Amino acid sequence: MRIALALTLLTVAAACNSQPEPVPTTIDSRAIVRALFGPPRDAGPVLDEMRRLRASASGKELEIINRAVALMESFERQPDSFPTRFPELVQILRDVVDMGGDVETQRQLVATFTILPATAKNFGLESTDLRTEAVARARALVARFPKDGRSYGVLATALAEADAPDSEVKAAFTKCVELDPTAQNCVEAQERARAAERAPRCSTLKPSFALRAGADSLTAADVLSTSFRDEGIDLVLTEVGAKKLETFTERLARTRGSMDLTVDNAIIFSAAIMEPITDGRLHVSPGQQEPMALLERLCVQVVRQ
Question: What predicted TM-score, i.e. pTM, was given to this entire model?
Answer without folding.
Answer: 0.65
